Amino acid sequence: MNNHSPRKKASRSAKSPGAGKRASAAEPNGSGKRERILDAAVRVFAQEGFYNAKVSQIAHVAGVADGTIYLYFKSKDDLLISLFEDRMERVNDNLRAALAAETSACDRLRRVVRLHLELVESNRPMAEVISVELRQSSKFIREYANPKFAEFLRLIAGAIAEGQEAGELRPDLDPQLLARSLFGALDEIALAWLVKGPKHTNDKMDLSHAAKQLGHLFIDGLKARPKE
Amino acid sequence: MNNHSPRKKASRSAKSPGAGKRASAAEPNGSGKRERILDAAVRVFAQEGFYNAKVSQIAHVAGVADGTIYLYFKSKDDLLISLFEDRMERVNDNLRAALAAETSACDRLRRVVRLHLELVESNRPMAEVISVELRQSSKFIREYANPKFAEFLRLIAGAIAEGQEAGELRPDLDPQLLARSLFGALDEIALAWLVKGPKHTNDKMDLSHAAKQLGHLFIDGLKARPKE
Amino acid sequence: MNNHSPRKKASRSAKSPGAGKRASAAEPNGSGKRERILDAAVRVFAQEGFYNAKVSQIAHVAGVADGTIYLYFKSKDDLLISLFEDRMERVNDNLRAALAAETSACDRLRRVVRLHLELVESNRPMAEVISVELRQSSKFIREYANPKFAEFLRLIAGAIAEGQEAGELRPDLDPQLLARSLFGALDEIALAWLVKGPKHTNDKMDLSHAAKQLGHLFIDGLKARPKE
Amino acid sequence: MNNHSPRKKASRSAKSPGAGKRASAAEPNGSGKRERILDAAVRVFAQEGFYNAKVSQIAHVAGVADGTIYLYFKSKDDLLISLFEDRMERVNDNLRAALAAETSACDRLRRVVRLHLELVESNRPMAEVISVELRQSSKFIREYANPKFAEFLRLIAGAIAEGQEAGELRPDLDPQLLARSLFGALDEIALAWLVKGPKHTNDKMDLSHAAKQLGHLFIDGLKARPKE
DNA sequence: CATGAATGAGCATTCATTCAT
DNA sequence: AATGAATGAATGCTCATTCAT
């Protein structure tokens, strides 16, 4: 997606718009190296953590030479950031589609919860990177330099705001704050599962069960309601 | 000659010079060095992040020699972990007191929220370390090696369970899961504030306001209720 | 797969694509690429210094692909050496012509001085490469691998020897040594000017003035004095 | 001489004036590591050239760990510069003493020549570093950042100026320019000897012979001639 | 107990060179 | 001939940890 022309000081957010660069013939970039590197990076970052991950290991896993990574990314930092942007973009695309597929705000929230936990379950490495490393790098990356995460929150906040306008959700709570809280809760559950989920496949840590409970929690709250 | 086994996670078991530390009151150290080191560590870890923090900087801030740190802590890792345990213990003590001071489950939950956000507001460095570094180091530290955090969650889950037994809270949600979700939400809000709060002192990021909203959210849920 | 024997001084023997180069007039290359590369090399070497100059930058300045340089030169080292030989050949040609144009040994020496300093003034990059990089690479390049510089000295020494035989210059000094000394002095003056000349265009650093003074210095020391 | 207190961001030209820093006891720096590193550096730089010299090799030759070098010098560059300053200081001290020991300007100049060539002969590595590397690094180091070399020239120029004032030397030549020329000639002769001297111990390259000839060359050019 | 100079393994990054196209 | 993406060896520098004093 990010269209790099190696050796040209790979600058993040390059994204040369005019596609097909040279005359017309082959695009030697073809082999999808950038993608292979990103895939390798998720795995290695997830397994080792950003700081303990070695660039050479990523290169090895990606099946390229160490130096090749620097044709596509400015630095190890840039690799992490590019990874976030790339993956979050996918997450956001999925989220948008999911939100559009539902009609009521409540359904949308339940969907968000389910979607996120399914993602975690189906793509552990990616989830670990997003949950752990994203936060680790937060202070200097997140909203500041990570518009994709901001967009993620905005999508959720938007769904909430719509629900409020439609009278479906109570209007006295700040959508931004709610979106954040929802994400925080989801992320924490995800992390717990990531940390000890795969080993103890007990009921309590079952993610789809957690999704249902979180849905209840956010939609209805904790308070016991005599009859509703 | 130099007997290094570097880069290999030293296993925890600090051995403070003054032997049996926490237990009794005696701490025959040289004037509370351990405490000074911990205080320095919070500040430095908060400012630089664990991996970018230099042991020598911590020593400098603490006003001790580099080597002295290793008289109190086995390694940099151990320093971080000890820091968590030490600080979380205080947090848990506060939490216990706060919970005991309230009578209803709802009040307790609101109190938890308020307590946590007040902590964040009043002690930024400590909050940053807990929010950011705790997670960063999560995969290999948290539950596994951080009983104090587990206890934190247990305290909250306990309050919820009590509320459920008393019929005050709905009984169909897992207290553990709820405790986690609550902490996740709190932590996320805290992080957002830590990242950009101090500069933009706008209403929306006001933590006491956030505390109220979070209280509503968890107690009552999002769904609009015609009249209650 | 990649057959590297890197970092090992490639032995000289460029093999320009158009085969037998210098000899005849024919140079069937694609539009004087070799020359363009050499021109780019002087500029880049002068600006960055040999070790800091990047082959890719030279290629860029020359308007050719990185790989193309290796069609004309065996290695970066070879490029530097070829550059010396090429430029020194011109210098020697000029020198020969200048010497032939004068009749007395004294005039010849003055001419040598003037010629060199004029060259420096009119072609800074080339002068920098000769002054700085030539010496830098001296130990393994100069006499040993740089017959063109040896020839340069020989031309001057020859003029001196002739003057001695003709009774115009005192015969007790070694022409080789004198030639070297003259070049050393010239080169040092040139370097001083190169380093801070262009900025401070004050009288003292004026090169034509320096030429006159150097003439006096060397001539009056060399000239045979019938009666003293 | 340069009084470093390791780990404190070794800054060039530190030279803490108050000597004996800590209370009174031992100065653990004692082993003369800084000097050993400088000695190793001269040898290695001389043999390999600055750019080809490896810091680890210098450390090895000095008998210290790689990291130790960075306790005394900020970087490889700083090591080179410190080396110049340190060695040039000695050279200047010798020069001052030599100039003071002579009474006439002519004797002083002859002495300068002899002194320099003797230095070259007796301390090849140091001479190579000064002759070759000094120039190599010229553009950004020499007068600009190398006051010691400027001082060297000033000493010589001073001797010449004195001679001019005393009527011993012709007054129409710029002392600065002459000092430069003298150094240039000396340096060039030295370089020639360094490059092929040790192997071919023929008469022509004999440095003491060269010294005499250079003396004649410069003196007879400089000396004021009452009647000519 | 304390010190801080010394250690040295470890790693991100560069860049000359190659070779498939 | 020309290209330029890919290579991967090579190295300056950092910093947690130790240990002689």
Explain the layout of strands and helices.
The structure is a homotetramer of 228-residue chains.
Chain A: H1 33-48, H2 55-62, H3 66-72, H4 76-101, H5 105-122, H6 124-136, H7 138-145, H8 147-165, H9 175-196, H10 207-220
Chain B binds a DNA duplex (21 and 21 nucleotides) through helix 2 and helix 3.
Task: Give a short synopsis of this structure.
Four copies of one chain form a homotetramer. Chain A has helices at 33-48, 55-62, 66-72, 76-101, 105-122, 124-136, 138-145, 147-165, 175-196, 207-220. Chain A is an all-alpha fold.
- State the helical fraction of chain A: 55-70%
Q: What gross morphology of chain A would you assign?
A: elongated
Let me know the CATH homologous superfamily of the largest domain in chain A.
Tetracycline Repressor, domain 2
**Any idea how many domains of chain A?**
2
Find the biggest chain interface: A-B, 57 and 57 residues
Distance between the termini of chain A: 49 Å
Q: Strand portion of chain A, in percent?
A: under 5%
Structural class assignment of chain A:
mainly alpha
CATH structural fold name of the largest domain in chain A: Tetracycline Repressor, domain 2
How many alpha or pi helices of chain A? 10
The first-level CATH class of the largest domain in chain A is given as Mainly Alpha
Task: Summarize the main sheet of chain A.
Answer: none
The CATH architecture name of the largest domain in chain A reads Orthogonal Bundle
- The count of DSSP E runs of length 2 or more, i.e. the number of strands of chain A, is 0
Name the assembly state: homotetramer
| SSE string of chain A, helices as H and strands as E | HHHHHHHHHH
